[in-house]
């Protein structure tokens, strides 16, 4: 049975204060407001935030879930808030990257009978997977659906930084433009320059392709693993350009990250955040970069030592950065907001409608799959079958990061 948007109206929709003992305690200080779909559903699934689209709700309701969505007007929920939401009976939770999913929350979920959690994000550095393993809780994430959207924002920041678009926009709006001048907002030409990618996984490779294909940049990348498909793409594109009488593009896999920093004109960071990538870009490494280089970060804030970055931006006015993520989100380190050579946006890299709705769907299906005892999808890089709105999704969890540790079966499809 597929439930379309208007049919949602058939489901009773309530807005009320959750009346569990835990919430009553928590609510003495702060009530948690929630919205309920399908109140008589057998499985209780909690989403800590309203998420885009309605397909994710449809899919859960169709499978006998009661869906409770926290509508509290507080951007980042505390551990206490989430414990109150979990209550004493909860089968699964869809959470957000701003939440601290560790021992406390996984034990609360386990006590409530829940064995399913999914981040609505591909990155899961906010989740203590070992703690989840201890309580037998599956941890889902949402790869693939955000790859191109995130890479497009990294490309947008690269262009905006190269051509000083934000500075020029502010200048225009301030009424300062009084005529064309040869030196006005001169920036960098990308064509023929070198783009450096640190972490050439899904998003890093998609970004590299955009910059190579779109702007005919040469590529240098650093990753722990060889990005074979990316290398093949650049080789083939270089051959195509040569055959068309144009300057071919080239690629190089660097032996070290420092090699990328020294050689590239634009460097984009796309690794996961873990202890090997914390402050990967520090004072010493910033000093290796070209004076007029551009640094883009759409991975996680702590990959850059932001204090060192602010100092570097001050000392090198021609060095530019484009940042979507920050070390102490939602805050910026002192001085960053004043830097004209920094473009800052509020963690919006995956914020296209299609992607955010897809992320919600994948997160819901991760939780549903575990609740229903479905296997884990065989390839988290190929999640398209779950995103087709015109057909039912496969009976599987799209992406469970601790599937192996929990010994979960894998789909043979
Ligand atoms: N800003 C945003 O809104 C946004 C959106 C999506 C993803 N992200 C972040 O981007 C990250 C990457 O996402 P993805 O889907 O491309 O993941 P991915 O796993 O496909 O790619 C990550 C790559 O980083 C590499 N890597 C790991 N440790 C490294 C190290 N020490 N040095 C160099 N490379 C290293 C891995 O080998 C892998 O190829 C996510 O973990 C998330 O934190 C941010
Ligand atoms: O990891 C992620 O998915 C992002 O940070 C949000 O899309």
TrEMBL record:
UniProt keyword terms in alphabetical order: Glycolate pathway, NAD, Oxidoreductase, Peroxisome, Photorespiration
Pfam families: 2-Hacid_dh, 2-Hacid_dh_C
Record domain D-isomer specific 2-hydroxyacid dehydrogenase catalytic: where: 58-375
Chain ranges of the D-isomer specific 2-hydroxyacid dehydrogenase NAD-binding domain: 157-349
Catalysed reaction, written as an equation: (R)-glycerate + NAD(+) = 3-hydroxypyruvate + NADH + H(+)
Lineage: Eukaryota, Viridiplantae, Streptophyta, Embryophyta, Tracheophyta
EC number: 1.1.1.29
Top enzyme class: oxidoreductase
Similarity annotation: Belongs to the D-isomer specific 2-hydroxyacid dehydrogenase family.
GO molecular function: glyoxylate reductase (NADPH) activity; hydroxypyruvate reductase (NADH) activity; NAD binding
Cellular localization per UniProt: Peroxisome
PANTHER family: 2-HYDROXYACID DEHYDROGENASE-RELATED, GLYOXYLATE REDUCTASE 1
Cited PROSITE patterns: D_2_HYDROXYACID_DH_1 (PS00065)
Gene3D superfamilies: NAD(P)-binding Rossmann-like Domain
GO CC terms in record: cytosol; peroxisome
Metabolic or biological pathway, per its Swiss-Prot or TrEMBL entry: Photosynthesis; photorespiration; 3-phospho-D-glycerate from glycine: step 3/4
Principal place of residence: other
Highest taxon of the lineage: Eukaryota
Name by which UniProt lists this protein: glycerate dehydrogenase
GO biological process: oxidative photosynthetic carbon pathway
């Amino acid at each position: 049975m597929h439930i379309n948007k208007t049919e949602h109206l058939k489901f009773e929709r309530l807005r009320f204060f959750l009346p569990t003992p835990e919430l009553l305690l928590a609510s003495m200080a702060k009530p948690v407001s929630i919205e309920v779909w399908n109140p008589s559903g057998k499985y209780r699934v909690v989403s800590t935030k309203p998420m885009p689209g309605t397909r994710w709700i449809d899919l859960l309701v169709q499978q006998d879930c009661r869906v409770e969505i926290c509508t509290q007007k507080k951007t980042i929920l505390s551990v206490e808030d989430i414990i109150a939401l979990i209550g004493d009976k909860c089968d699964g939770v869809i959470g957000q990257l701003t939440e601290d999913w560790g021992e406390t929350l996984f034990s609360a979920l386990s006590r409530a009978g829940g064995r399913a959690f999914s981040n609505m994000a591909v990155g899961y550095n906010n989740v203590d997977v070992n703690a989840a393993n201890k309580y037998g809780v599956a941890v889902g994430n949402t790869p693939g659906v955000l790859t191109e959207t995130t890479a497009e924002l990294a490309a947008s920041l690269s262009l905006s930084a190269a051509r000083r678009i934000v500075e020029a926009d502010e200048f225009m709006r301030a009424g300062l433009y009084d005529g064309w001048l040869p030196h006005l907002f001169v920036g960098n030409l990308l064509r023929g320059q070198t783009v450096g990618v640190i972490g050439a996984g899904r998003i890093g490779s998609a970004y590299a392709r955009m910059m190579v294909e779109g702007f005919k940049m040469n590529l240098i990348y650093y990753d722990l693993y060889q990005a074979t498909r990316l290398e093949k793409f650049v080789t083939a594109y270089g051959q195509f350009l040569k055959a068309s009488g144009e300057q071919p593009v080239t690629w190089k896999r660097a032996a070290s990250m420092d090699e990328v920093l020294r050689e590239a004109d634009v460097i984009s960071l796309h690794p996961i955040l873990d202890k090997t990538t914390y402050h990967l870009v520090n004072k010493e490494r910033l000093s290796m970069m070209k004076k007029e280089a551009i640094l883009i970060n759409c991975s996680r804030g702590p990959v850059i030592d932001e204090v060192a970055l602010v100092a570097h931006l001050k000392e090198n006015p021609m060095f530019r950065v484009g940042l979507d993520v920050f070390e102490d989100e939602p805050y910026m380190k002192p001085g960053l907001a004043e830097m004209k050579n920094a473009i800052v946006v509020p963690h919006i890299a995956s914020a296209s409608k299609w992607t955010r709705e897809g992320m919600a769907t994948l997160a819901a299906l991760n939780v549903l799959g575990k609740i229903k005892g479905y296997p884990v999808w065989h390839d988290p890089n190929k999640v398209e079958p779950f995103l087709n709105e015109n057909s039912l999704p496969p009976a599987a969890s799209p992406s469970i990061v601790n599937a192996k540790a929990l010994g979960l079966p894998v789909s043979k499809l």
